[in-house]
Amino acid sequence: MNEIIAEYLASHRRLVIPEFGAFVKKESGELLFSELLRTDDGVLTALLTSRGLNDMEVAVVVDRYIFEVRHELEQYGYCRLGALGTLRLEPATKTLRFYPPVEQSELPQQMHYVPQPDERRETKDESKRQDESRNSNATKTSTAHKLSKRPRKRFDMVMVVAVVILVAALAAIAYGWYVSNIATADDDAAIEELRVKPGQNVNE
């Protein structure tokens, strides 16, 4: 659309964008933009029709163009129009000011760069790839987290078995000590009873 407008204005003085505004070329060749001239004079429709579009397609193309320009103005404060120049929404007056290409150096430095359609498409594709990469990394992290829990369960089972073995070993040691000490004491008592005291008859 910007190319069509620029081509027409190369040999004409004015082109109205219905319900939006008009580009006006002064005798000096300076190009201006006026929000006051918004009434459809049929020129833009004729230009698009001559390129093979029907009335419905013309309406769609014009509405889409206006929507995209207004969206960028509201979103970023300005909109680049290709070789035509740049439209800027003045913060103080809320009016549109047009900057021809030779005057774009006057644009405030803090204004953000607005990608052209092809660049926006590439940016969206890049964002999509980044989202897919983040989702993939999140899946890998989740899987790794799940896998990291499995050794913990095995470790807990090993600890339980070790504790059981330790308790059994301690019980065996305690039992051995008990048997050893009690049995020895009983044997000593029995031997002591069997001993013959001095002066005592063995047959007694």
Quick recap:
By secondary structure, the chain is mostly helical.
Task: For this entry, give a set of tags.
56% helix; 4 helices; 204 residues; 3-stranded antiparallel beta sheet; mainly alpha; 12% strand
Label the structural class: mainly alpha
Query: For the terminal residues, how far apart are their CA atoms?
Result: 138 Å
Enumerate how many helices there are, as a single number: 4
Order of helices and strands: HEEEHHEEEH
Share in β-strands: 5-15%
**What form results from the Cα inertia axes?**
rod-shaped
Number of strands: 6
Characterize the main sheet: 3 strands, antiparallel
Q: Can you give the mean pLDDT?
A: 75
Low-confidence stretches: 109-120
- Main sheet: strand order: 1-2-3
What fraction, in percent, of the residue positions are helical? 55-70%
CA radius of gyration is 48 Å
What can you see in these coordinates?
The chain is mostly helical. It has a domain at 2-111. Helices cover 56% and strands 12% of the residues. The longest helix has 78 residues, at 117-194. The N and C termini lie far apart (138 Å). Mean pLDDT is 75; it is low at 109-120.
SSE layout:
Blueprint: H1 2-9, E1 14-17, E2 21-25, E3 31-34, H2 43-49, H3 55-76, E4 78-80, E5 86-89, E6 96-99, H4 117-194
Antiparallel strand pairs: 1-2, 2-3, 4-5, 5-6
